[in-house]
Amino acid sequence: MLKMIIAPSLLAAHHAAFGEGAVRASKSGADWLHLDIMDGHFVQNISFGPQVVKEVRPLSKLFFDVHLMCSKPEILLEPFAKAGADEMIIHVELGERVESLIWTIRNLGKKVGLAVNPPTPITSALPFLDKIDLLLVMTVNPGFGGQEFIHEMIPKIQQADAWRREKGLRYRISVDGGINNETAAECARAGADTFVAGTTMFSARSMKREVAKMRKILHANDPALADLKV
Asked: Is residue 133 annotated as a catalytic residue, yes or no?
């Protein structure tokens, strides 16, 4: 039974004050800080690079979950590892490069995540499930915050959870995009255990209260706990 993880996404913080956003997330009771790295090529938007992560790292003791929405992550892995990433997520859409990228991240001593975009079949991740620490099911098309949750992604989460059980693996199942209390509950029931929430957390007057509220909802919708009650 994996602990439910709440990961505020720094991209939703005020862009002139990423440091303050990281401190706010650290004081909220959240578990991780999610950092979206966009290159303007793999996705249309551009966010920030290793230097921002390096500057923010001393301000937070949270686990840094770095999501590389980039066409050439191979040139960024070492810089982000040195900047303070704890985990680096690459995209399965990179095709033949995925295996070597996983190996490089592992060789840098970091945890490995693999993301799957909405149009991509979840089966594309199947060859790598025994090599990763986290499978990220994108629940919006990546590139911009504040999008609506795509409910058609729920079967992907269910399939990822089914494979995890069948194969006896321990990878986390993360969801990112349109995550609020309602959609987080839906994803938890489907088997997700890691919840990236940007707008929901950073737009709240009290992130601490919002984290506590989401944690209570996740606890109530945790299938593992439901099984124990039967």
From this structure: no
